[in-house]
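Consortium newsletter contribution from the modelling node. Members have asked for a concrete example of what our holo predictions look like. Here is one, prepared for the NAP complex that several groups have been discussing at recent meetings.
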Amino acid sequence: MGNVALQCAVLHGAGRFAQHLLDAWLRHAPHLTLGYWCDEVLDVHGVCHLLQTHDRLDFAAAQPAVEDGSIALTRLDGQRHHLPFFHGPATQLPWRGKADVWLECSGRYPTAEQCRAFLHGKTQRVLVSATCWDADQTLVMGYNAADWRSDAQVLSYGSCTVNAFVPLAHWVHRRYGVEEAEVQVIHNQPAHRMEAHPRRQACTLERMGPQLLPWLDAGRFAVNYTLIPYTGASLLELRFRLQSPPSLPDFLQNLELACASGPLRGLYALCAQDPGITAVLGTGHNAVLHPAGVRLQGDTLRLSGYFDNENSAVRYWELAQWMAACQSAGVT
Ligand SMILES: NC(=O)c1ccc[n+]([C@@H]2O[C@H](COP(=O)([O-])OP(=O)(O)OC[C@H]3O[C@@H](n4cnc5c(N)ncnc54)[C@H](OP(=O)(O)O)[C@@H]3O)[C@@H](O)[C@H]2O)c1
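And here is the predicted structure:
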């Protein structure tokens, strides 16, 4: 995209997703940077304490501190940044309308209708960190980000499970033809809201999958989603019935190539051995697979993997960067 002006974003939310997004920002922000931060629940000291004591992400090098009502952080490039922080209703943000983009990561404004309240002044775009049924566009990196339209005001990046499934399912369909698909997700829970027992829940992927993938028949697609009282990475089991099943060695070779240098590069990893669930934390892949978790029985392909659901913030951040670059370059 060449040299383009750096755009500025407000980050709304300070939960697990926003914390991972902050981590991504500390590492890389070529087209869009964070300028402001706000949360309706946690105040500036609460957020700073969360960063200083994080059990998953290491913010030590960033030296988080509260300075004059801002969160001060040192980015990987060595520069110290001050993010002015507001604790209160998002619609009363003192800097409302000053950023180019509103990053809606709080989970408290799930509809585009609600998010349109943030379109004000300079702020012409909201990107929601969850499935948003009335969004102008849902864009998934590695699948349809190139469809971005400059007139889309409220956009969604999908969700962690949408990102885990869609680019891989699209690749499988293009190569082998998918007749039906099924997804099992075993999902973690936040430490501060741990429940006593596992709980089954509806997953937005079941409806969003067929919306995003025109070849996927809603009547031949099912998602089972279970929340378990545990804070680590999540588990993913995929089953596809294929029109043209390959041999297992051919499939593994093609998957390895796609992950190493093809359309799944950077999105999925195929490890030589089962890495174990803990090793995938922080990897930034939509899902991590391994050969022992790949089975072909007749026309049925099964894939077992892991995914760091919170770190789908990496894809969200890439999408935010992509849109900023497109806009600055005058793409319509
Ligand atoms: N987490 C994921 O894996 C993930 C992945 C993709 C998309 N998303 C989406 O991103 C949005 C935000 O989700 P989230 O997972 O970031 O929510 P979350 O971790 O549950 O955080 C949201 C809220 O939780 C509270 N909170 C967070 N950490 C806390 C702590 N240590 N102590 C006390 N309170 C704390 C705060 O308010 P409360 O008092 O309300 O708890 C905070 O504003 C949602 O729309 C979600 O669907 C999440």
